[in-house]
Amino acid sequence: MALLGVLLVIAAVIAGVLLFIGTGSLSTPIQVDVLGGTVEFPPIVLLITGMVVISVFWFGWFLLRVGVKRGHRRRQEAKEAERLAAEQRLADEQRMKDEVAVRERQLEEERRRHEEREAELRQEAEERVKEQHTATETARRRAEVAEAEATKETSDAKVAKDAKGAKDAPTSSGDDAATPPAKA
Questions:
Q1: Is 41 exposed, middle or buried (0-12, 13-18, 19+ CB in 10 A)?
Q2: Shortest CA distance to 32 belongs to which of 18, 14, 43?
Q3: DSSP letters of 7-20?
Q4: How far apart are CA 145 and CA 96, in angstroms?
Q5: In 3D, which of 2, 19, 124, 149 has the Cα closest to residue 75?
Q6: pLDDT digit string (tens) for 82-94?
Q7: Is the pTM value of this prediction over 0.70?
Q8: Burial class (CB in 10 A: 0-12, 13-18, 19+), 53
Q9: In angstroms, rounded to a whole number, what is the distance separating the alpha carbons of residues 9 and 116?
Q10: Complete DSSP assignment for 69-135
C-alpha cells in the first residue's frame, strides 16, 4: 500500500513538471514533448490534466500515509502482542511457581503431620513397653515374695514337723544318754 502511494506521488510530480515545462502560453495550443514525440493540447485539457495530476498526487499521498500508519500500527500491535505474550508467559511461570510452592507446603505439612504421628506412635509404644516392663518387674517381685513366703512356710512347716516329731518320737540318742552304761 505504501509502495503504491510512493509510485503515484512520483508519477504525479513527473507529470506536473512535464506540464509546467511544456506550457508556454494559454491561448495557443500547447505542444508537449513526451517520450520522443510531440503532443499538442488545448489549454482546457491542460487545466483538466492538472486537476487529475493533483488528485492523483493527493490520492498517492493519502495511500502513502495510510500505508505508513498501517505499518506502524502493525508494528505496535506486534510489539503489544509480544509484550502480552511475555506477560502471559511470566504470569504462567509465576502461577506455576506458586502452584509448586503451595504443593511443596502441602507436602511439607503432610510430612510434618506424618512425623508427628510417627513420634506419637513411638511414644505410645515406648509407654507400652515401659508399662509391660513395670508389670513384668512387679510380677517378678511378687513371684519372688511368693516364693520366699512359700519357702519360709515350707521351712516353718518342716521345722514344726521336726519339732513335733522330736516330741512324739523317742530318740535313741537321747535314751542312750539318759541310761547309765551297764557294767560287765
A1: middle
A2: 18
A3: HHHHHHHHHHHHHH
A4: 72
A5: 2
A6: 999 999 999 999 9
A7: no
A8: buried
A9: 84
A10: HHHHHHHHHHHHHHHHHHHHHHHHHHHHHHHHHHHHHHHHHHHHHHHHHHHHHHHHHHHHHHHHHHH
